[in-house]
Amino acid sequence: MTRYAKQKRLLLAVDCIIFGFDGHEVKLLVVKRAMDPEKGKWSLMGGFIRPNENLKECANRVLKQLTGIEGVYLEQLRTFSKPERDPLERTVSVAYFALIDINKYEKQLSHEYSAEWFLLNQRPKLIFDHEEMVRLAQKHLRYKASLHPVLFELLPEKFTIPQLQELYEGIYDSHFDNRNFSRKVLSTGLLVKQKEKDKKNSKKGAFFYRLDRKKYKADFQAFLNFIPNPDKFLS
Predict the structure, then answer these.
(1) Could you say which of 145, 147, 157, 215 is the most buried, measured as most Cβ atoms within 10 Å of its Cβ?
(2) Helix (H), strand (E), coil (C) string for 6-67
(3) Statement to judge: residues 102 and 142 lie in one domain
(4) Are the C-beta atoms of 96 and 16 separated by less than 8 Å?
(5) What is the pLDDT of residue 202?
(6) Same structural domain for residues 51 and 115?
(7) Beta strands in the chain (DSSP E)
(8) Which DSSP helix (H) or strand (E) runs through 134?
């Protein structure tokens, strides 16, 4: 079989950036690398593409192999191709990312490769250019959340305003004023107040709300303005 002449070997890999929400905090899933270079150090879930698979198939396989997690919708982020990004051999990596409900995938999680969830601002140092991948994925996630209320997919059917605020604060890595956040969220008219209260964290408790999905589908843009100064988080 004829091959392209005078072309040098180049490896193609994928890396998976998985953010998770456990009901109170946003976290990042990482594993310990099983090969040299940087063996035993914290890493995103990565691996090389096989001849018989496409990038998406490779990303799903690698994620399942290293963490046990499957059935996650992975979105392609960007290609990372700096010649020196892997010190051993020239490797181009295509990064994928996802935001999941940690509780839904808790039973799937395997610890064969020391898969562990870390708070975003307390994550360990990652190998190669994985820190850059995480930062870009965070930026893209914030951009998506500012244009569409995707984060509501992570919440239970009934949730509290403080719980919703914790989710947004985790994604934007910032503190929002409680009163302003509550006022802006409720002004959308898309939340339905329930009779029950969540009294786990205080005697007074916080009322549960649910998303009015009919109004949500008809006018989801009502949510788009409740993040204060979104531009500062997207630069």
Answers:
(1) 145
(2) CCCCCEEEEEEEEEEECCCCEEEEEEECCCCCCCCCEECEEEECCCCCCHHHHHHHHHHHHH
(3) yes
(4) yes
(5) 67
(6) yes
(7) 11-21, 26-32, 42-43, 45-48, 75-80, 91-101, 116-119, 159-160, 191-198, 206-211
(8) helix 130-147
Whether residue 149 is preceded by a cis peptide bond, meaning omega within 30 degrees of 0, is no
pLDDT category at 153 given cuts 50, 70, 90 is confident
pLDDT digits (tens, 9 = 90+) for 119-151: 998 999 999 999 999 999 999 998 888 777 778
Scored b (16 or more CB within 10 A) or e, 19-32 reads bbbeeebbbbbbbb
Nearest to 213 by CA among 205, 203, 223, 204: 223
- Domain contains 1: no
Please say whether the beta carbons of 172 and 139 come within 8 A: no
Please give the C-alpha separations between residue 16 and each of 29, 46, 140, 203, 235, in angstroms, as whole numbers. Answer: 9, 6, 14, 41, 23
